[in-house]
Amino acid sequence: MSRADPVRVVAVADTHVPARARDLPAVLWDAIDAADLVVHAGDWVTTDLLDRLEERATRLLACHGNNDPPALASRVPEVARAVVAGVRLGVVHETGGATGRERRCDERHADLDLLVFGHSHIPWDSVTPRGLRLLNPGSPTDRRRQPACTYLTFTLHAGAVRDVELHRLPPRTPAT
Fold first, then answer.
1. Closest CA to 84 of 20, 8, 172
2. What tens digit of pLDDT does each residue of 22-66 get?
3. Domain 7-168 CATH class label
4. Residue 131, class by beta-carbon neighbours within 10 Å (0-12 exposed, 13-18 middle, 19+ buried)?
5. Which residues 6+ apart lie within 8 Å of 47 measured at CB?
6. Global pTM?
7. Cβ contacts of residue 70 below 8 Å, gap of 6+?
C-alpha cells in the first residue's frame, strides 16, 4: 500500500486469552478479518493467539507485555514501529501512570506520530504537546472497572490518523 491508500486498522491490547476469555469475541474477529492492519499492544498470555492473528491478519504490528511468556516475547518486540500510510506508528504495552503520560511519551517516542499502548485496560485518546497521538484500545476480554470491554478502529491516510472509533462489546454470556 502506498501513502495515498487508506489503511483500516484494528487495535487491541490486553487480550489475556485464555486466562480472561476462551477466545476473542466474534465481532472482533470479523473486524480483524476486514482490517488492513491489526495492532496488538501486548498481554497476549500465550502464543496461541499470536499464531492465530498471524494467520488471519493481513498485516500485524505487535509487542509483548508484562504477562507474556519468554516464548512470546522472543517473537514480538517490546516496542514495534512501522511507517504506515505516511504515519510513524509505534506500539508498546506500558507507558506508566496517567499522570505525566503525555510528557513521558513525547520524550521516549519522539520519532512517532501515533503510539498505541495497553496495560491499563482503560481506553485512552489524547495528543501530547508535541502532537503525538496516544491511543489505548482498552481490553476486549477484561473490562476491569470499565463499563464494557473495548477495542479501537481507525484509518491511517496520507500521514494522518482519522476516524478513531472506540467499540464497546456486549457483555459475554456464560457458556452453556
1. 8
2. 999 999 999 999 999 999 999 999 999 999 999 999 999 999 999
3. alpha beta
4. exposed
5. 69, 71, 72, 75
6. 0.94
7. none
* 92-144 tens-digit pLDDT: 999 999 999 999 999 999 999 999 999 999 999 999 999 999 999 999 999 98
Residue 176: pLDDT over 50: no
The angle subtended at Cα 105 by Cα 100 and Cα 110, nearest 5°, is: 145
Which residues does residue 96 pair with via DSSP β-bridges, in sequence order? none
Q: What one-character-per-residue DSSP string does the chain give?
A: --TTS-EEEEEE----TTTT-SS--HHHHHHHHH-SEEEEES---SHHHHHHHHHH-SSEEEE--TT--HHHHTTS-SEEEEEETTEEEEEES----STTHHHHHHHHTTT-SEEEE-SS---EEEE-TT--EEEE---SS--TTSSS-EEEEEEEETTEEEEEEEEEPPPPPPP-
Q: Which three cell numbers stand for residue 119?
A: 496495560
Cα–Cα distance between 82 and 86 in angstroms, integer?
Answer: 10
Q: How confident is the model at residue 170 (pLDDT cuts 50, 70, 90)?
A: confident
Residue that has been written with the C-alpha cell 491516510 in this structure: 157
The domains of the chain are located at: 7-168
